Amino acid sequence: MSNPAEKPEVVQLPAEPVSVPSAASRRAALQRVREARDKLTSTSGTRPAFDAELLRQYAQTRLSASYVVMLLVVATGVLFGLWMQPIPAAAWTCGMLCIHAAMIRSCRRFLAEPTSPAATRTWRTRFVVLDLLYGLCWMAILIHPVLDMVTETLMMFLMLLVIAVSSMLAAYLPIAALAATAPVAVAMALSFAMSGSLDNFILAALAIAAEGYFVLLAHRLHSSTFATLEARAEKDALIGELEQAKAISDEARHRAESANVAKSRFLAQMSHELRTPLNAILGFSEVMKSEIFGAHQVAVYKEYSADIHNSGVHLLNLINEILDLSRIEAGRYELNEEAVSLVGIVADCHHLMKLRASSRGITIHEVFEQAMPRLWADERAIRQVVLNLLSNSIKFTPQGGEIWLKAGWTASGGQYLSVKDSGSGIPEDEIPVVLASFGQGSNSIKSAEQGAGLGLPIAKNLIDLHGGTFTLKSKLRIGTEVIVTFPPERVMSALAPMSEDSPPLQPESSVIPDEKRRPRHKPIMSAGTGS
């Protein structure tokens, strides 16, 4: 029997990472697609909105220069009536004025009607045709055979004047400018060239060059106007995006405020619902632990009662920490400020935590500067900060370790508190994590004494309420140091004395004439002087 065919080995290629385009690249791609679509639907290669705006500016320019054009036509008709028969000159003048009137009427109708892509194309064609008729009429009068007696210089001047005026008026519509000026320039160039003299050839070349120059100038004006419209459109789009982003941010802020209010109500309600049965649990467990009504028949019940009481105390402390943090974040934590001694508070907290530290073999050193003035601060808040920092140091310092408590002056005249331990330390990338609410580092997760991750955030927020700074420095396997500073404004010795004069002990009276003759060195009241 033949061996069965071996199955081909299937090798799975590593999946290529999918690159997610950024917001800027997506916006640029969308902009390119929009521009390509607009160019396909536009008659001039630009956006339809730009076509309508350019036509609007063209119409407004035509209307603003209507009297100038009428004056030019009438003056040319009168001048040509002197060299030719008055009737043909008058007929040409009437024809030009009719075309000009049709142009003005069309411009006014265009400005009065609402814009649309189809209407824009129609009006664009109409304006180009009217400008073409305008140019043909000028061509007819400039190459009239009767005007052969007129010098070439005067004809060249009239041609340049007509081309310049027409180019400036139709600059917002380059094809209309070309339609209005090309017949005049070409006809004059042919007229000069057919004469056969060298001077006329030069004039013909100058006519073509002038036409090219004014067409280029009109194109430049059109390009600058188009760039201005693009900049304005981008500015409007940016303003729209900013307004949309502001609306989104306002909506998100309203949702966050609503969620914050809901969270505060939930915490307030849950704190009440949890504290009510918890107080009963703590009370009865303490009674059972203390064996107030008699000893337990089974000794292990006393240990169970102690465990229940300790768990209840831990849960109550956790609820209090959550409520304190929620009040601080909501801005409803009020400081009960008074004159307190920073060294005294730190010494009291050391005394409270000394037994716990001694049970773990940890030595706490005190380094305090003497004769420090009092602080204007909330004693309960500072006590909570010191207890949180000291309990964290004791928790993460191994047996036989050391903790240093320092209090003294800062360089700016404030006061500082430092808690430094020889514990395991915190990785540098985990410092923002442990300062966040419910944040725990890797050492905290591995430790047997895990907390809720609220001690440091509460301490930092309480210091921020006092206007101080909270700095955490740590190195792995070396230790951690937390430095808390209070601004000089909170040091009582830094307060300036009152500048107001104290009221007199006895008001002066104008009815006692002897008071005016009293010597200045003699006090008003001699109480306690013996005199």
Describe this structure as you would to a colleague.
With 531 residues, this protein is α+β, with helices and mostly antiparallel strands. The protein has three domains: 29-244, no CATH class; 282-330; 338-490, Heat Shock Protein 90 (2-Layer Sandwich). Helices cover 61% and strands 8% of the residues. It contains 14 helices and seven strands. The strands form two sheets. The protein has a five-stranded mixed beta sheet with strand order 2-4-5-7-6, with helices on one face. A two-stranded antiparallel sheet has the order 1-3. The longest helix has 93 residues, at 198-290. The protein is rod-shaped and about 140 Å long. One of its GO terms (molecular function) is phosphorelay sensor kinase activity. This is histidine kinase. InterPro entries: HATPase_C_sf (IPR036890), HATPase_dom (IPR003594), His_kinase_dom (IPR005467), HisK_dim/P_dom (IPR003661), HisK_dim/P_sf (IPR036097), Sensor_HK_Regulatory (IPR050736), Sig_transdc_His_kin-like_C (IPR004358). It catalyses: ATP + protein L-histidine = ADP + protein N-phospho-L-histidine. Residues 269-490 form the Histidine kinase domain.
